[in-house]
């Protein structure tokens, strides 16, 4: 990606997940998003490389029954770039924050009692990068009593469902009475942070790999890393979809 497009792309991705934005702001964000994607596609058409955008342009231009339309090309880029950026940023943010506010957990990793994979999975469970995702729709009537819910309650076919991955990760019935506690030594770290079934995130292996590279590199480079402000002064992102902080100020020691 051309470096000069970075700041604008970051701004519009943040805007996509700003769920408190009004209609005018949303319209402006999407217009800017398509504009910057148009610049990206133009740059890659002029100078293709070994990258996702070039591959999608090739799929758009191939003479076959599966070729992408120009709109599908832009929409695919919008989905992959925004979803792949926002989620990974929040995973790294939440993992760093959790370790800096739970030094005993960081000590487990440094002393070999837990791995960075343990950190990643426990962060995904306890601090899901996507808190809630609208919307799923029931394909048939779902009697909640049969699923452990209140008797008589039914989600009717066609009704919308808001999936709360963050709540699922902290469910005491699944993770015990200490479900809200960040514990990298927890034996069972099952979570829905990447979705489930046909909606399981296609970027899950990449997201885990990025965190597996970034986290040890950060803490090895800055062994004295510490929060620069009290944790209760950190502000959440303006979104009920994304779960992370607007910024995470640190001291490098």
Automatic annotation (TrEMBL):
Alphabetical list of InterPro entries matching this protein: Cyt_P450 (IPR001128), Cyt_P450_B (IPR002397), Cyt_P450_CS (IPR017972), Cyt_P450_sf (IPR036396)
Pfam families per record: p450
Database matches in PROSITE patterns: CYTOCHROME_P450
SUPFAM superfamilies hit by this protein: Cytochrome P450
Keywords annotated in UniProt: Heme, Iron, Metal-binding, Monooxygenase, Oxidoreductase
A molecular function GO annotation: oxidoreductase activity, acting on paired donors, with incorporation or reduction of molecular oxygen
Family of this protein: Belongs to the cytochrome P450 family.
Protein name listed in UniProt: Cytochrome P450 monooxygenase
